[in-house]
Amino acid sequence: MNPFPTLATQRLRLRELRATDAPALFAIHRDAANMRWFGADPMTDLAQAHALVDTFAQSRTQPNPGTRWGIERDGELIGGCGLFKWNRAWHSCALSCELAPASRGQGLMSEALRAMLDWGIAHMHLHRVEAMVHPQNTASLALLERLGFIAEGTLREAGFWNGQRHDLMVLGLLTQKWLEKK
Q1: How many Cα atoms within 13 Å fall on the side-chain side of residue 61?
Q2: Which of 63, 68, 73, 168 is the most exposed place for a label (fewest CB within 10 A)?
Q3: Position 1 in a domain
Q4: CA atoms in the 13 A half-sphere facing the CB of 136
């Protein structure tokens, strides 16, 4: 993949995560209530956040690479979003995102995902983007539907975190639908 793509929106900067972001990532990922829908157990120490930054950096070099942006507002890391599991032959990938609780309800994730999807379609030549969301994560489901994602079904017990199996809804966005909504 090319050098890391930094994206700018009206209020946000989407940029590469760096080691200095670990404390902010840890603050987001250690909160059990915040992580209940994320698909991973809450972090228990700062070293896990440092390892996550390294994992995201290495994902760009994998056979099915991914790109994970830190979402920055006014110089502060408030979350992240990414495109991963890129299947170049199928022109498809998956997305994920998280936002600090204090930054929710302001349209910031919608703004970040719009920039990320525009970039993915233009530079990765995507035809399809999918997301897997816990059925009770109504805020994420509503956000994705506003962006044009369509619920396609439920993967029974596909997720496992906090010692429990979780059903996940699959939502898909086709590039044609994205371009029609613009």
Answers
A1: 5
A2: 63
A3: no
A4: 7
